[in-house]
Design brief:
Number of domains: 6
CATH superfamily of the largest domain: P-loop containing nucleotide triphosphate hydrolases
Strand order of the largest sheet: 10-9-8-17-14-11-13-12
Oligomer: single chain
Distance between the termini: 50 Å
CATH topology of the largest domain: Rossmann fold
CATH class of the largest domain: Alpha Beta
Number of helices: 34
Radius of gyration: 28 Å
Shape: globular
Amino acid sequence: MSNFINKLAMRVIKSEGYKEASKSLFSSYVLNFTGQESKFDRKEISKLISSAQIFYKSELEEIKKEGAIILSMLLDICAADNQDLIPIANSIFSNSGDFPNIQLLTEKHPQLNFKYNFYTEAQMEFRQSLNTIEELDFPLTDYQRSLWHDLSSDKDVITAAPTSAGKTHIILSYLMKKITDSDGAFAAIIVPTRALISEVAGKIYQLAQESNNENEIEICTVPKEGYFGEKTFFVMTQERLHEVLQRGDVYFDYLFIDEAHNITDKNRGVLLHLTIEKMLEDSFPQVIVSMPSPSYQDSFTSIFKDIEFKKKLTQHSPVAKIVMSVVPKGQELIISRHNSSNVKHIKKGFTATHLADIVYKLGKGQSNIIYRNKTNYCEDLANEISKRIVEITRDPLLEEAADYVEKFVHNEFSLADNLRKGVAFHYGPLPSSIRIMVENLAKSDNIKFIACTSTLAEGVNLPAKNLFLKNPLQPIMNKPSERIENVKINNITGRAGRMLQHFSGNIFLIEPDSWTYKDYFNDVQEEEEKIPTYFKSLNEELDSVLLALKGSYAHNEKDQYRFYTIANKLIKEYSSHSLNNTLSAKELTLNEKERDSLVKYVKSAYDDLTVASFTLEANPTIGYIQQNKLFNFLSEQTHFDEWILPHPRSVNLYDVLLKVGNKLKEFGVYTPNEGYSLDYICVITKKWIQGNSLKEIISEQIDWDKKMAYDNNKSAPSINTSVRNVITVINNDVRFRLSNALRCYQVLLTNILLSRKVDLSSVKLHYFIEIGACDERMINLINMGLSREAAKEIDSKLHASVQITSTKDLLELNLSGKLESIHTITKKELLGLLT
């Protein structure tokens, strides 16, 4: 039967009748989203809905996608005037298990009542009951139902599905049930970036509230001393979780690796690899690995070599993707649908060919994301789109958002004026409170246009009806840009269309023939075997690994952390007699001579080791030779008082930071980035760690930038550039580089103090640096999932005697009215966490 359906579907697609009908439908669809009236022939509708029914029954994914595209376009432009389409669409969605779309149909057409025959009614009711899980209050897609059953069987699961397939919600719902039903359990959830921590933590708290378990669980987002709640979710990046694992007293029952394709990422892959291996030394959790592409399903073979995974893979999403190329030519825009002969010419209505003109023409009145390669490109495009919005309907929500930017960042930061027109930009070096605010306004549809960098590819949930791409590239500092990986492009395009709001999402490729890389949307893409960065680096960059093992890989090179982490991992494996696991792994393709050379260098490095081998594991990104130098220096000291790291509130914090920092720099443990001096980094670190407001830090940065420009007879940078500089320095130089270096310093110094039986304690400054606060109450607020700026404002409004140790305390404070004076944006972030 399936072979017959496939042949029939292909015959339909190739027929002239279908080509003409789909061409007419596409023409009407384009006119519709550009705000023009269009009439579509009833006979054509009948042909196309019949075709869609056939396509949905095919087992070939590309034919199913064609059916989904045709059906979504029909529903968008014809359903209001042709309501007999609704029961047909309802039946199609039921048979394909796309129950979210049935809910969307009901919401869009609540007045429509229809009856099927008894057999069809019974069949649809059975399908819905099959996809309804007792523990969840909504019917699932076929993929979600199958994933839930695999998880509930306590199996280890690898799942790959498109961005909009709803996999994360099912996994978190499952973990919530298991944790709350237990007598006590720990779940570790690894996310790739700090930006995702608050998003995932918020989802977990929402699930806890829905099941009335919010007072029973703890959500931990930063490493801390002391005890954890009996039922705790650890939502952390690999860096933060790695530090928790160094305690050695935490057993995990569940491990969920979100966006797991990052095991192959150059910047994060090796540390993620190390973190997983460290966890498996002391814990035997149920492992759940989630990724957007099946290309990465075998990337964990060596890491989880004794685990047999149940694999749940799909390429299907309830939200169809309509890919279109857009080419300005003369007075027209030529819009062509990908993989079809559908083409529509429309009047431009503007004279130039600026991207902002195209975006505004095609996206007016809808929600839009425009991917740009660089942060300043995002800002420039947001400004250009704002200029084209002349008629402004004052939106109180946007006005309060703009006011927040002016009060908490800077009154000349261009985002404020953009927001008043429903336009925004979104990228990594934005304050976390601003990112959260923009994301919430986008989800509520108050912001209509967002210019965004690759934060979209990191899993940040920012779906919109339309996504625009123009020559997408991966910028590399001081090097030519590279092609974006397919998995990241798919993650970006996955943001087109929002489940339960859209039947489809539009992906506009702007002038694709002029792109540097033209193969992003090829039908057949050659995918190399995806292996962890650890093995890929050994296979392809062995010389650099050997340099790191000798301690001579340049410390100012961007990849130094990756190669020194690999070198430390190799030394650790040698010391624990497990190096053969790496040498015999199927992912390693070195020849015998190269393997012998690798072993020789590893042995030599191990023999030269003066620090304890376990410190290499505690400080994985810093080379052993650099650690040796620092260890030897500290060992030579007779008085340690001047080398002890003080409390962040200490009056001599800056002086100690500068003194220690100079030694760390001298031994290659810390190298400032971005051309800033060490004393400047220490000033920023002091203000950050002591909880100074971001606006204060930014204002001082602006003054510093102006002074430097004056001293060098140059023009001062823009306010936006200064804001980006501050956030970039804090994220890269302070929270990553300096934090790692001080962690290494702390571990080595503590070991020496213990061995000498010196009764002095050194503060873990790196812990406070990572958080950006040093007062217990503010730290607790950040740990609950609030942004640093929201936590600071709430903290500043309360008397010093008020304690906040749980979300219950926070909720009671809010209900008592003691937080009434906080800014409305902070209030919304707070309510987003609590409700």
